[in-house]
Design brief:
The protein is α+β, with helices and mostly antiparallel strands and about 350 residues long. About 30% of the residues lie in helices and about 25% in strands.
């Protein structure tokens, strides 16, 4: 969100405070869709599995076999596997028996066909899929016994699958001391290189960004926290409303028996198309925004100003660093490499 939008919200008399408890009541889903069909398939399946797991919070799933979800794309399901049966209304219900079942899915899981195939464990499921010559397709393999899903993208080796945990337990609870390391991992996976998942560059060699880069990073960061942090008892929100404007990303967790703890993040992108002075003011504007948002919700927890740096030179902004320290805001700058893998300094 821009400083201008924040000021506009104040002028319009938007004075209603929105408690973080509204997140507890709302349980939002992702508002930013992944960009490719393959990514959308994986996100849709993981969201469905999340609800399937939540419906069985107290059930013993230890004896269940893995379930497999395959993206058919534009192919008729019969071209993927023989002897499939149609599963009408599959995506709207969560009482399905997925143990030892292969599901062949269309986009958004609007059509699902399935077939029972016995699997001993996840490696056996991946082996069977390779033997059936299906391992070139986008696949999600879910282990109910371990409460973990493996996302295998097309063209990726099975040993390089992305792992998504679903288990929530005190031993794996998330505290906000881990936010820094999460941001580091997010940068490494999503924004550090032009080939990273966020795909933020329009012309990497000229360091030209795509339109609305902050919105693009916000959607990716929201998705990252939704799938990797939310399972550990953290509620994830974006575009949260305060009477001082709308913030970018917010995490909410219970601290003790009855105390909420809130982590707020404001995202800014520094551009090679701006002067140094304008980039500095852009970052300082983000600092003013996060300070304003925090003043409307005086609950314990850290505030972050995250600057994703697309400038030609990888250099610090000392004035922003000093101002953030005065405001007790955690300032993080993440330099985004050009197409050669190096800064142009």
């Amino acid at each position: 969100m821009t400083v201008r939008q924040s000021r506009s919200a104040r002028r319009s008399g938007q004075t209603k405070k929105h408690s973080p408890l509204s997140i507890v009541r709302r349980q939002r889903v992702l508002s930013e869709e992944p960009r490719t069909e393959e990514e959308r398939f994986a996100f849709d399946v993981l969201a469905w599995l999340r609800r399937w797991v939540e419906a069985r919070a107290d059930a013993d799933l230890s004896a269940m076999q893995p379930g497999v979800f395959i993206y058919a794309g534009s192919e008729p399901p019969s071209n993927i596997m023989d002897d499939l049966e149609e599963a009408p209304g599959f995506r709207k219900t969560h009482d399905s028996a997925i143990s030892g079942v292969v599901h062949v899915c269309s986009l958004e899981m609007r059509k699902v066909h399935r077939k029972g195939v016995a699997f001993r464990d996840v490696p056996h499921a991946l082996l069977r899929l390779r033997q059936m010559k299906l391992d070139h397709l986008p696949i999600v393999v879910f282990s109910p016994a371990q409460l973990v899903a493996l996302v295998k993208r097309s063209g990726i080796d099975a040993d390089d699958c992305e792992q998504v945990p679903f288990r929530t337990s005190p031993a794996t609870s998330f505290d906000f001391g881990k936010v820094n390391s999460c941001l580091d991992e997010f940068h490494r996976l999503f924004t550090r290189h032009p080939e990273s998942y966020c795909r933020i560059w329009a012309v990497p060699k000229r360091r030209k960004l795509k339109p609305n880069p902050e919105k693009q990073i916000q959607g990716s960061l929201m998705a990252y926290f939704y799938f990797f942090v939310r399972p550990h008892g953290v509620l994830v929100d974006e575009e949260f409303t305060t009477f001082m404007g709308r913030g970018d990303v917010r995490l909410v967790r219970w601290k003790g028996a009855a105390q909420l703890e809130v982590c707020m993040m404001e995202l800014k992108v520094l551009s090679a198309q701006r002067t140094d002075a304008k980039n500095e003011q852009w970052a300082l504007g983000g600092l003013a925004q996060i300070r304003d948002y925090r003043s409307t919700q005086p609950l314990p927890g850290p505030s972050y100003l995250c600057c994703f740096d697309g400038r030609a030179k990888d250099v610090d902004l000392p004035s922003v660093d000093a101002a953030a320290a005065r405001e007790t805001v955690v300032y993080r700058r993440f330099y985004m490499l050009n197409s050669s893998g190096r800064s142009t300094q």
